[in-house]
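Quick review question:
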């Protein structure tokens, strides 16, 4: 009886494997057909757009409009999850599909956590992309981190369900970074479908990847190599182009992982990542300032904010600040005048409110946010800094006092104050400036060495302009 049961089980497994192979062949045929239809559809769209500059219109009742968006840098991930060829005794096809659903559900949670856009699943192939729909500079790092979490999750799942040495699932991942075009559709729920050489290359990288391997193209490698321990894998022939070099991601570098194990990111990783991510936040804030600052702010404009952000970094390095302190300084510099979009007076306070609202979205801790707010408030005149970071931003905020362009910059501040009915004649302003500069002293050694000499020259220049 036992022999008969075993024979039936073997036949059942063989039948399931055969069915799976047939499904895979059918899927490949459908994918090829879909690719052909997509190409034909793109040709039709292109022709239509040439004929109608207003773009695509709804073809039938209830049909949604589609539009295309271009992203100069997106990171595309293909993950192939396969395990049908390793079915274990007593596990039927429905149980396998349930387990696959569990895996895909967790993958969805992972990409959501890293703010990566899931594109679609095709059978047991999972596709997602970073840098879509919100453009960001960190998307290659985000996608590689997500890939590592996918691999770690699947390894833990296998151990919890079947113990070591009894794996039925294999995962291989391919990642590539480059420009993509996204077709946007949907009303209540927006869907994105991406296409282009970047997508095709990512798919090919996944195809040559080994089981258990995260394989990345050289384009992605150059953008993430600072954080990840990678090993050269080989070359991928690319039609009409030179061979594409590929690298295998082994894990995080020891200095960026908890206990040096290469799995979980540590505080050093988060700070270094934050310095890169700062670029995205800076773009948002500068755009806000460009659009929302009153026209009469001739001095407290976008240029002044950029100058302060640049200067805090320069003085910060000169004063021996750590990476985290540089990040705090640059962030405070970015927000220190953002409150002008709300009110002229007490703008420092309003800047702290904007920082408290935005910074949690960029994973700043509560302690870091409080420090940043203290640094911002220290710029309120007259400056009374109480620590090194406050000294640095106060020196950076008044850096113009010792620069060669002091006179024209000073005049913009005068025009701004005059527009606010806070200043009388230019002669009165020059008198105030002489008094202020004569009593001013830079707080840091770096600023004193860079600006103090020029500041004395400025006093003499202004005095020559004063009339009794």
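Suggested answer, residue by residue:
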């Amino acid at each position: 009886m036992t022999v008969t049961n075993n024979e039936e089980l073997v036949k059942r497994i063989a039948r399931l494997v055969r069915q799976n192979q047939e499904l895979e062949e059918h899927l490949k045929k459908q994918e090829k057909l879909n690719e052909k239809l997509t190409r034909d559809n793109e040709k039709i769209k292109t022709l239509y757009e040439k004929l109608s500059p207003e773009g695509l219109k709804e073809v039938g009742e209830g049909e949604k409009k589609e539009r295309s968006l271009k992203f100069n840098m997106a990171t595309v991930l293909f993950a192939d999850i396969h395990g049908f060829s390793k079915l274990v005794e007593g596990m039927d096809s429905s149980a396998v599909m349930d387990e696959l659903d569990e895996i895909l559900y967790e993958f969805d949670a992972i990409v959501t956590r890293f703010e990566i856009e899931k594109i679609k699943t095709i059978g047991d192939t999972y596709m997602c992309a970073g840098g879509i729909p919100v453009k960001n500079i960190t998307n290659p790092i985000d996608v590689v981190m997500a890939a590592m979490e996918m691999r770690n999750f699947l390894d833990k799942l296998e151990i919890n369900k079947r113990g070591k040495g009894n794996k039925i699932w294999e995962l291989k991942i391919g990642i590539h970074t480059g420009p993509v075009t996204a077709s946007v559709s949907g009303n209540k729920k927006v869907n994105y479908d991406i296409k282009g050489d970047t997508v095709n290359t990512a798919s090919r990288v996944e195809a040559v990847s080994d089981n258990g391997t995260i394989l990345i193209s050289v384009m992605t490698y150059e953008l993430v190599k600072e954080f990840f321990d990678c090993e050269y894998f080989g070359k991928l022939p690319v039609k009409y182009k030179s061979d594409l070099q590929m690298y295998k991601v082994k894990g995080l570098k020891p200095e960026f992982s908890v206990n040096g194990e290469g799995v979980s990111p540590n505080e050093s990783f988060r700070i270094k990542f934050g310095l890169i991510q700062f670029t995205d936040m800076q773009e948002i804030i500068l755009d806000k300032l460009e659009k929302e600052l009153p026209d009469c702010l001739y001095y407290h404009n976008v240029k002044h904010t950029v100058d302060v952000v640049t200067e805090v970094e320069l003085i910060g390095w000169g004063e021996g600040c750590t990476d985290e302190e540089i990040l705090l300084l640059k962030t405070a510099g970015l927000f220190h005048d953002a409150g002008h979009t709300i009110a002229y007076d007490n703008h420092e306070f309003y800047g702290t409110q904007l920082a408290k609202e935005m910074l949690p979205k960029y994973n700043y801790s509560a302690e870091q946010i409080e420090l940043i707010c203290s640094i911002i408030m220290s710029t309120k005149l007259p400056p009374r800094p109480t620590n090194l970071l406050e000294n640095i931003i106060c020196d950076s905020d008044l850096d113009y006092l010792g620069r060669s362009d002091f006179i024209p910059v000073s005049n913009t501040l005068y025009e701004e104050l005059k527009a606010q009915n806070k200043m009388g004649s230019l002669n009165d302003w020059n008198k105030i400036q002489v008094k202020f500069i004569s009593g001013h002293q830079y707080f840091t050694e770096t600023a004193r060495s860079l600006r103090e000499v020029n500041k004395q020259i400025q006093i003499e220049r202004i005095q020559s302009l004063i009339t009794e």
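Why it works: The longest helix spans residues 2-51. The beta strands are 67-82, 117-122, 125-130, 170-185, 191-195, 214-217, 228-236, 244-252.
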